[in-house]
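User: Sequence for NAD(P)-dependent dehydrogenase, short-chain alcohol dehydrogenase family below. C-alpha cells please.
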Amino acid sequence: MADKYEKIDKEVKGQTQQQQPGIEEEMTPEPIYDDQNYKGSGKLTGKVALVTGGDSGIGRAASIAFAKEGANVAIVYLDADEQPDAEKTIKLIEKYGGKALAIKTDLSDDENCQQAVEQVIQEFGQLNVLVNNAGKQFPTKDFLAITPDQLQETFSTNIYSMFYLSQAALPHMKKGDTIINTSSITAYNGSPELIDYSSTKGAITSFTRSLALNLIEKGIRVNAVAPGPIWTPLIPATFDKEKVKQHGASTPIGRRGQPSENAPAYVFLASTDSSYMTGQTIHVDGGDFVGS
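Assistant: C-alpha cells for NAD(P)-dependent dehydrogenase, short-chain alcohol dehydrogenase family:
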C-alpha cells in the first residue's frame, strides 16, 4: 500500500479550488479514502457516530472505517456544493453495512449544532462517538492583514463549533462513549501563514485535554488526532498551484499523507482499544512533529 501512496503523491499536479472547504470530486488524483486492505472486526458494532466534515477528506475516510467496524454514521457537510461528495460518502457507508444520514448545516451556529444532534437521535436513537472534524483555513502572509471577519470565521468554524456540538451531544452520551477532535500539526510546529488557523488548532488541543479531565468521572473519553499534510479538498482550496504540488514533500517520510492513513487512528480512539487513553493526541504527520 505504501507504494500506492507514493505513486498517487507523484501524480498530484498544481491545482486550485475557489471555495472552502473544497470539493473532493474535483481533485486530481482522487484522494485515497477507502483502504481496501483495512478489514473491520466489529470494534464499533452497535455504535452511532456523528462526523463533522464527513463528506470528504479525513472525515469521509473515518466514516468509511467506522462503517466497516459496524457503526451507523451521520455526517455533516456545509452547503449544496458539497452535496455530491456527501452523497458518495453515504453510499460508501451503506456499502459496508452501515446505516447513514447526511446533514447539511453550518456548525458555526449553536442552534444548528443542537438541531444536528437532534436529527441523529431521531434517526438512530443514540449517539456514542462524536468526531469534531470540520475546519477552514485562510493563508495570510501579513499578520496585519488578518481581518476581524476572517478571524471570526476561522474560530467559529474550527473551535466554537466543537464547544457547541459537544454541549449538544453530551446529554445523549454515556459511560464508554467518546469524543474525538481533529487538531493539526500546526498546533505544534506553528505556521507563519496560518496564524489564525494554527491558533484554533492549539485551542483544540487544550480543549481536548481540559474536556477529558472534566468528563472523566462520567466515563466519557476525549482524545484528538493531529494530521500533518494530508491530501484533502482543503489543500487545493487553500494554496496556490506550486504549494499544492510541493505539499508534504518536506516531511521526513517525504510525501503527503492520504485520508485513509488517518482513519485507523479515529477507529482506535473510538473503540475500547484505547480504553486507557484520554486527553491525548495521536500524530499522523509523516514524522513532521517529533516531541514529548
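Residues 79 and 104 are 6 Å apart (CA to CA).
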